[in-house]
Predict the 3D structure of the following.
Amino acid sequence: MTATVVVVGAGPVGLLLAGDLRARGVPTVVLEQRAEPMTETRASTLHTRTMDLLEERGVLDRLGPLPDGGSGHFGGLRLDLAAADPAHRHAGQWKCPQTRLEAVLQDRALELGAEVRRGRRLVALRERGTAVEVEAQAADGRRERLHCAYVVGCDGVDSTVRRLAGFDFAGSDARRELLRADVAGLDIPDRRFERHARGLATAHRWPDGSTRVMVHVFATTPGPRDGPPRFDEVVAAWAEVTGEDIGHGEPLWLNTFDDTRRQATGYRRGRVLLAGDAAHAQLPVGGQALNLGLQDATDLAVRLTSSGLDDYDRVRRPAGARTLTDIQAQAYLLLGGPEVEPLRQLFAQLLELAPVRRHLARRVSGLAAPSTPTDAPKDRSSTMGRLTNRTALVTGSSRGIGRAIARRLAEEGALVAVHYATGEDAARETVESIERDGGRAFPVRAELGVPGDVHELFLGVEQGLKERTGEAALDIVVNNAGVTTPAGVPPEDVTPEELDRLYAVNAKAPFFVVQRALPLLREGGRIINISSGLTRVANPDQVAYAMTKGAVEQLSLHLARHLAPRGITVNSVAPGITDNGGPLFDIPEAVEQMAQLSAFKRVGEAVDVADVVTFLATSEARWITGAFIDASGGTLLG
Ligand code: NAP
């Protein structure tokens, strides 16, 4: 028989993919080795991004209300995942037994017309021209052949597809392992990642009265395993770590998990693709493996039905690598012995900082993920990847607010020209951090405020864009680079040279950047000029600087009218006092004092401003032009 896509593996990843492919009209067959669906009631954690994806597909409605998964953790240190985006309707994490998720995803795939053939073991894969021949064996030994355009391995960490197609699965073997068991007849206290002198112990009573225990003895390395651990191993480890005897309990289920880290060096080989655990093996901490796999599936379904299949590897492999790195960091913190105590203490202190919590929570929750293409009508409501296929220039993005803007635009899928004047290393770091997160960027050097500045800038921008996209078209220009007089200068002392310099960098350069960008800007483009709250609050010692920012606001106002016929919006964003990483923000007393100016009693974070700029850059802000946007945390409220 002929199917367009054969998905191997009827776990959540394979079933979600099959449903999505059917929703796009692709004939899809799922082959599964197990004759019956899994019955283990392993709880699954669903993160915010996954909840969005499931909701968009109507899967959440089918699942019914899910219990709140409580606060999350990072390497066993408490991390409230709601910090990723407290206003999000799926902020936090949610619990859903994997069996239930699989059942619902299977129903959906079947209703949409997928064929799920169980009890079929994949035995051969052969690529023949524009088709792949798949051979599967049933339990009674009979073999069947299918021909398809693509095969996707969603068959887990021991993937047969991966082996048969010759994918390289590079990485490192397990160095540490956690023993797990569900045990009946125990009466021990619940505990979460409790660290003892000899190891780590977790106990959780299930509603059926059995207890899930997990235990790791520090500094033990896993030996070769061929199947689950013996119960007496678990009993011995539990006694060594906690001093408690659980030997009288009745083991219902025994299992281990370890910190193996492996990833396919490519997610695609010709007509064979990998998704989920088949593409990446990792410690299944905090449910990230499942969420990563489900996100692979939704991305791949779109790519398989559009012309961008090569982008699947380009986007999902870095996303996987990033999650694997985060998980490895968590493995050190969680399973490390006394030697990681200083690191844990430092990490715990860092987790007290709101931007750190937000950053990590976004990564765990999948909200920092690179863009997924959006051809499905529902996907358009998604807040991810809103700038896919757009290009952006952010002046002064080597550091401070500009860096945060460049990072956010790239997170949303834009290719970003990271401009700088002197901070070459900092600009490189910005570009590297964007690339590490799966985004695209390149550095451009040009000093602004000197003759020939804009010409030099655009030589670099045009060349960088052409090399990467084949054309020099821009969608977003952010005039962010600016100079200030940090300590202020009383009006009586401002010199003509100082005023000229401030004007040259802060007002004249943005004007000519825009003028030079006009022929490159595509319809629907965005110009965002960074002003300052100081245009609305009197501070005589900053009069010269504030005058230049007033000029920038005029630029926005008048060009908004001029460029509206091309659908280009022009707006000003005015930050208040914003931590740009400068030395002033290392002085707690100074920060405390500055914080009092904001209605929220804190100084702004660069990302607070970057989020506003990013919104203005999206199509969602199409109806805003010529506006002054106060991004000062209420500093201007008085
Ligand atoms: P920042 O940390 O001082 O960084 C300034 C950036 O602009 C750097 O990337 C720098 O590049 C670049 N730059 C400076 N002078 C330049 C020149 N002559 N030519 C080319 N590039 C130049 O700045 P920030 O605090 O993030 O501020 C960003 C924008 O927000 C500015 O327009 C500022 O006026 C405005 N703003 C900031 C605050 C605040 O509290 N931070 C408040 C209100 C408004 P190199 O390092 O490579 O030289």
The longest helix spans residues 310-335. The domain at 2-171+261-360 is CATH 3.50.50.60 (FAD/NAD(P)-binding domain).
